[in-house]
Amino acid sequence: MLDSEATDKRKLSLSEAFPEKKVEAAGTTFSRVETDMEDDCRKAAAGPFAEALHDQKCSRVLRATYVDSKRRYAVTSGIAVLPSKDAAMRADQTKNLSRNLWFRALPGPGGSGGERVDIAGGYAAGLVWGRYIVFSYATYADGHTPAAKDRTLGKVSDAFRDEMSLVLERRISNS
Prior knowledge:
Mean pLDDT: 94
Largest sheet: 6 strands, antiparallel
Strand content: 25-35%
Structural class: alpha+beta
Distance between the termini: 9 Å
Number of strands: 6
Number of helices: 4
């Protein structure tokens, strides 16, 4: 059902992608501090990956940034919408996570704890599910770069990727 616009015609909205203000992930409660829906997918990505999204006819990228209650972690997660599974796979193959040429993190407003998410080093997680690319990027809210042995941000990023996957699971069960 999720492999093509022909079988999945309903547009993905911000309220569907991010239904809850608070999210439990990796044993911590996070609050949403910012959302964005970008119809020019290049503005939500970087480098050759941004161009690949455009070339593969990406129609929108929905992103939200969350911060935990202690303001230790900031996470941008979201979903890119493409016309087909093949297009999503082709675009996804152009990402370069080691050079951070993938989705751009979405900074939160000043004082939210999410204002440095777009300049801090962190951990990315993602998957292609049908015509969608699900992604997350976890950083330290204070902007410091994680140490090579850091395992916490990877767990947080994976948990948010899994949380975003639930949006698509609900889409399948509500069809």
